[in-house]
From TrEMBL:
Gene3D superfamilies: Winged helix-like DNA-binding domain superfamily/Winged helix DNA-binding domain (1.10.10.10). One of its GO terms (biological process) is methylation. Residues 15-90 form the Methylated-DNA-[protein]-cysteine S-methyltransferase DNA binding domain. This is Cysteine methyltransferase.
Length: 117
C-alpha cells in the first residue's frame, strides 16, 4: 500500500532521513527513530514506512526498543537482518542486540546540521 496523503509522505521522508543517518555498526529502536523524526509515539509507523519504502535504506539497523529483531525468528528477513548486522560488527545473540553497547546515540550537532527538517 503506497503512501498517499501529503502528511503521510512528509512523515515517511522524515523517517527515511533518520534511518539513513544510523551509522554502520550501530542500531536504533523504532521508537527512537520516531522520536528523532519528530513523531513521538509513532514507532509502528516507522515499521510501516520501512516495509513500504523502495529506497535503499539501512533498514536492518532498526530493532525493537529491547534490542530484539522484530521479524519472525527463522524467516528469510530475520536471517538477512542478523547477517547484515553481524557483517557490520554488531553482536547478535538469539536474535537480540545489547542496546547499551550498540545503540546509536546521535549528537545534537549532527542532527541539527544534517536533517532537512
Amino acid at each position: 500500500m503506497p503512501i498517499s496523503s501529503p502528511s503521510a509522505l512528509r512523515n515517511a521522508v522524515r523517517i527515511e532521513a533518520i534511518v539513513s543517518l544510523i551509522p554502520v555498526g550501530r542500531v536504533a529502536s523504532y521508537g527512537q527513530v520516531a522520536d528523532l523524526a519528530g513523531l513521538p509515539g509513532r514507532a509502528r509507523l516507522v515499521g510501516k514506512v520501512l516495509r513500504q519504502t523502495d529506497k535503499r535504506l539501512p533498514w536492518h539497523r532498526v530493532v525493537s526498543t529491547t534490542g530484539t529483531i522484530s521479524l519472525p525468528k527463522g524467516s528469510a528477513g530475520f536471517t538477512e537482518q542478523v547477517g547484515r548486522l553481524q557483517t557490520e560488527g554488531v553482536v547478535v545473540i538469539g536474535g537480540r542486540i545489547k542496546m547499551k553497547e550498540w545503540q546509536w546515540q546521535p549528537d545534537l550537532t549532527e542532527l541539527l546540521f544534517t536533517l532537512p527538517f
